[in-house]
């Protein structure tokens, strides 16, 4: 399970990243994941690397803009910090589609000893995603999010799934609107789930997360 933050994203602000695009991670996490890919390839006779772009879901999703914003709104949280620039383009993929993509690759012998990027390929400006959430959920989410554009290190992040489609015929089945609705309904019914746990822990320890960007 890889990550697209291994790529040198500033080079691809106006074009989609493909599997052979230049590497250049900007975070320690990205460096670790890139190193892990090399370990897997050099120490396994049969390997596969699949990288999702902005996978999200409902209950259980601890990181995405969609899950954290919905949870905050439903639980009366006034503001949550979002380490994104609302003017930049992102492409969110429902986790069910990502899992389907992984299994589609695993079932094809020709996919082994190869790498694939998996994306919804329906990019939107991040601020427009919030507006879509408003429409789908019948709520107003704009005031819930405190954007921190100075922490945005990827900018526009767009990925091509052409290779995965060519090898497997895979394509996403869940539109962003449908996925948001699925997330909203599952979080509405969830118990004991809190995707803001780490943000709250940092706040309780007086840790300013913006210092790490």
List the helices and strands and how they pair.
Elements: H1 28-43, E1 48-52, E2 55-56, H2 65-74, E3 80-82, E4 89-90, E5 93-94, H3 95-106, E6 114-118, E7 124-125, H4 126-137, E8 145-147, H5 162-168, H6 176-188, H7 197-204
Parallel strand pairs: 1-6, 2-5, 3-8
Antiparallel strand pairs: 4-7
What would you say this structure looks like, in words?
The chain is an alpha/beta fold and 213 residues long. The chain has a single domain, classed as NAD(P)-binding Rossmann-like Domain (Rossmann fold). 37% of the residues lie in helices and 11% in strands. A two-stranded parallel sheet has the order 1-6. Strands 2-5 form a two-stranded parallel ribbon. A two-stranded parallel sheet has the order 3-8. Helix 2 crosses helix 6 and helix 4 crosses helix 6. The radius of gyration is 18 Å and the shape is globular.
Strand order of the largest sheet: 1-6
Structural class: alpha/beta
Q: Can you name the CATH architecture?
A: 3-Layer(aba) Sandwich
Query: Would you count the extended β strands for me?
Result: 8
Low-pLDDT runs: none
Radius of gyration: 18 Å
Beta-strand percent range? 5-15%
Largest sheet: 2 strands, parallel
Q: What is the highest CATH level, the class?
A: Alpha Beta
Instruction: Supply the CATH superfamily name.
Output: NAD(P)-binding Rossmann-like Domain
CATH topology: Rossmann fold
Number of helices: 7
Order of helices and strands: HEEHEEEHEEHEHHH
- How far the N terminus sits from the C terminus, by CA atoms, comes to 24 Å
The level of helicity is 25-40%
Judging from the principal axes of the Cα atoms, what is the shape? globular
Number of domains: 1
**Mean pLDDT metric:** 95
């Amino acid at each position: 399970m890889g990550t697209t933050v291994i790529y040198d994203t500033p080079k691809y602000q106006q074009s989609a990243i493909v599997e052979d695009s230049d590497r250049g991670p900007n975070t320690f996490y990205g460096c670790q994941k890139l190193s892990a890919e090399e370990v897997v390839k050099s120490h396994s006779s049969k390997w596969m690397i699949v990288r999702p772009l902005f996978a999200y879901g409902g209950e259980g999703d601890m990181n995405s803009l969609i899950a954290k914003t919905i949870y905050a709104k439903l639980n009366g949280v006034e503001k949550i910090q979002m380490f994104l620039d609302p003017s930049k383009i992102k492409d969110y993929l429902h986790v069910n589609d990502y899992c389907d993509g992984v299994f589609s690759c695993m079932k094809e012998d020709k996919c082994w000893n190869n790498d694939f990027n998996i994306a919804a390929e329906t990019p939107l400006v991040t601020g427009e995603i919030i507006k879509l959430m408003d429409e789908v959920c019948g709520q107003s989410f704009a005031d819930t999010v405190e954007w921190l554009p100075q922490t945005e290190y990827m900018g526009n992040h767009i990925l091509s799934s052409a290779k995965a489609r060519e090898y497997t015929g895979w394509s996403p089945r869940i539109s962003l609107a449908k996925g948001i609705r699925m997330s909203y309904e599952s979080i509405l019914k969830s118990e004991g789930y809190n995707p803001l746990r780490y943000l709250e822990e940092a706040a309780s320890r007086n840790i300013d997360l913006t210092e790490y960007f």
